[in-house]
Design goal:
It is a single chain. By secondary structure, the protein is mainly beta. The chain contains one helix and 54 strands. The strands form 14 sheets. Strands 9, 11, 12, 13, 14 and 15 form a six-stranded antiparallel sheet that branches. The protein has a five-stranded mixed sheet with strand order 10-16-17-18-19, with no helix packed on it. Strands 1-2-3-4 form a four-stranded antiparallel sheet, with no helix packed on it. The longest helix is centred in the middle third of the chain and has 4 residues.
Length: 645
Amino acid sequence: MPSLSGITKVEAGEAHNIALKNDGTIWTWGKNSFGQLGNGNTNDTSIPVQLPSILGALDVEAGEDFSIFLGSDGRASTFGDNSRGQLGNNTSISFSSIPVSVAGSHVYLKLGNSDESSLSMFAIDTSNNAYYWGDHVSGGQGGLYTTLPPATCFGSVNIGSNRAYPCRVDTLSNIKDIGGSLANSLVLTNTNTFHLNGSDAYAQDGDGVYEPAGFGFKNLTSLVGGTPSVVKTSLYSTFVLKTDGIVKVWGANRFNNLGYNGTIRTSPIIPSITAFDNTYTSVSNYLENTVALRNDGVVFSYSANSQGSKGNGALSFNVDFNPSQVIGLPTIDSIHTSGLYSSFALASNGNLYGWGRDENGDKGDGTSTITHHPTPVVAAIPGGPVTKAKDFCALNNSLQLYCWGLGYFDLLGPGLNHPTPLLMANSGVAVDWERHSAPHDVLIIVTSTGQVQTAGNSESGVLGNGTLTTDHALLTSIGLSNITKIVSNTEKTIVRALANDGTVWAWGTDPLGDGNSSGSLSPIQIPLTVPVSQFEGDYYIGTDNNLYSWTSPTSLTPTQVPYVSNLTKFGVSDSGTTFLADIVDPLTTAQIPSLTISCNDGIALNTTTCTFTLPVDTRVDDNFKLGIGNAVVGGNCTDDGTTAT
């Protein structure tokens, strides 16, 4: 996405964004099926587009599929979906792709905070009164299954039971902030009292008393145990930041999003998230499924135990993300997660153990019945101890490669489910491999002689055979030699190969790092200014111990990642990248190669105003200090995207 400078606020809906610049212009991008981008059409766009004829806007906000802004006169305009009256213009139109005026012509001071699931909107007028409109049946300002608060309304058109016009809350005044989600709304007053209403299905009010019919506005200030400064509600959870910097949370906690080990928290707590300590030697992760290997060879699981993924002998789902030991394992050398509900561990004795989901023969133990394994089972790999395992494949000590599980395009033979490991490469052939599963089943191996061979579905674009139409039923050489390692990017759209002379070759459907915006269906060499020391996924460590990305938003060639140095190790999972490195302070002089300063001596006011321009990639925070002569000046920097004052 092209960069925008001078952004003062940006808000996200379910799949679209709206940004306000410091010149009062409004820019939108993303999904546009309901006209929520406000540009007069319903075409999606990944490039920010400016709303025409809007200057001097004061505020912006986004709901699920609609947007709102305050014009220079403080009046509100909306665009997007109106199926629940979200536009507030006192009409029943289904949607609008251009801004329409909110009924009542009130002058608003600011807009309320709506999360991306919200089907309603909130605003505060210049007299500090709170207003709402939109969905109040399934949640939002009125709350789930509860009576709306007393209000004065400015319209008459209802869409179902929802009000397509603004209503002023009569029971609360002196409002500082207001916001809401699909299930609740909250208010913070200028006297720092905190009020919540709506659904209590997940103990959102935090008072320990379950109210299935929901509740009207409650003063919850005393529950927080101090003065609230910021309040926020997400779907079925409540968060309060106090003036002392402590965060209190309560409500739904299905995936420990509250930092608390339990399903529902009925009273406010301080979040506490279990951390890995320095006794762990490796961690493997896929979304909510995490396993960790301790330095004594013991494996621990951090998951919700879906389909036995925790490996603790139980199949029942729970949300205990605290570490528990995977039972029944000998001393383990390495670990690997193979999806959301499945993990493997390679033992020192050469056995490969798997636990969790097994719907497609995932564990390779030869069992043809669909059954999950809450206790680890041994994969039936022929030919002796296993030396390496990943991606539902394993290499024995004779360098024979076996694969199993779900197989498409006859990669593993006829049928889909293959619980018995199948020999893929003969003795002495494979030393490294990558396997991409559905929807394009592909196997890519490095042979003991340094050749690269591929097999599987050509539509993936990573067979390296020059076409998207010719499948390889059997492993076939693609013309590379002297290769020592191959890796795929996170999206499995690119494969990169490292040769023993330090050169890197790549192929696939996305930009490869050779300067071109399109990929290549055959291997091509990637030019490097710094040779590769280690590489995984979308990054590599150079021989200078700096981190490089193969491409970046501003470059189609390898680019050094700023602020990271002395990199010694990193790992990549489907959820992100972990680095062991030094993070360089971006505010040191070493990070500012050029600094232009012009000063205006304000002797009459005993002040000096200086303007300085920094490089585009330099980050500046509010604690920035600038030395001028013998004086040190700092604080309250503003950033318009390219300059700081």
